[in-house]
Design goal:
Elements lengths: L7 H4 L11 H17 L1 H9 L6 H26 L4 H21 L7 H23 L7 H23 L11 H29 L2 H28 L11
Helix pairs in contact: 2-9, 3-4, 3-9, 4-5, 5-6, 5-7, 6-7, 7-8, 8-9
């Protein structure tokens, strides 16, 4: 999850903008960013209200959202007193985020081969994240390599989930299946941000205010989509699948 712990808009160096952008576009970007931060309360509220009906995997998803909000608040406070360490919190959260999603898929009972796969993938990604942080990049910058590796890993896991769901005849409407909704959110979010992370350090180094706002706007849009899918997953948790209505 992209949050204030790794937000290029909140961590850019103070410098005059390289390019001017219309004020209305700046306001729109700020409104989208605030909306994305506020929408996370919807899936959290649904998770709390439907907690007894949640599967272990969805409970881990609710825990992930809480940890993400805590990381964002911690990064915001750190930016006020120790701004140089704000990005370090984001780097640590990237690893925690990946392990959370690995745990969510690990707890999915309908995927019997996944525990064996994830037991290998999670430690390998942890080693890669540490190597990227301390050798490929720097702890005082956005860990683009780790984000790209994270996106590739989670985007690869989600289609395996889709394939398994399509083989299950008891699933009548996939759009009502929580696991399908969570996997769709993962694919949409990480495929929408993988290129952003690839170029984020360039914009930060160039002090490109316009580029930073574009990154924040795109991230806010995909975050809104992700939280909406998470909210639907919690809403349909524990409900019986419905047959599609006749056309």
């Amino acid at each position: 999850m992209y949050n204030t712990a790794s937000n290029p808009g909140s961590s850019r160096a103070a410098a005059p903008p390289a390019r001017s952008i219309p004020p209305w576009l700046v306001s729109c970007a700020e409104y989208l960013e605030q909306a994305a931060k506020g929408l996370v309360l919807v899936p959290l509220g649904l998770a709390g209200g439907r907690w007894p009906r949640l599967s272990p995997a969805l409970r881990r998803l609710a825990g992930y959202l809480l940890v993400a909000e805590a990381a964002g608040l911690t990064a915001g406070v750190t930016a006020l007193y120790r701004p140089r360490w704000q990005l370090a919190i984001g780097q640590g959260f990237t690893l925690i985020e990946t392990l959370f999603f690995c745990r969510i898929y690990y707890l999915t009972p309908r995927l019997p081969l996944w525990p064996r796969l994830i037991v290998w993938l999670a430690p390998l990604f942890t080693l890669f994240a540490l190597f990227a942080t301390f050798y490929l990049e720097d702890i005082q910058q956005v860990n683009a390599c780790t984000h790209v590796g994270q996106s590739g890993l989670l985007i690869a896991l989600a289609p395996l989930c889709f394939e398994q769901l399509l083989r299950e005849l008891q699933i009548i409407r996939l759009e009502h299946d929580p696991l399908f909704l969570v996997s769709a959110a993962v694919v949409l979010y990480f495929s929408g941000t993988i290129l952003l992370y690839g170029f984020i350090n360039y914009f930060l180094t160039a002090h490109d205010y316009a580029g930073n706002r574009v990154i924040c706007t795109i991230h806010s849009i995909v975050s809104l989509i992700q939280y909406s899918f998470f909210a639907l997953a919690f809403w349909y948790a524990g409900r019986l699948p419905q047959a599609p209505s006749p056309s």
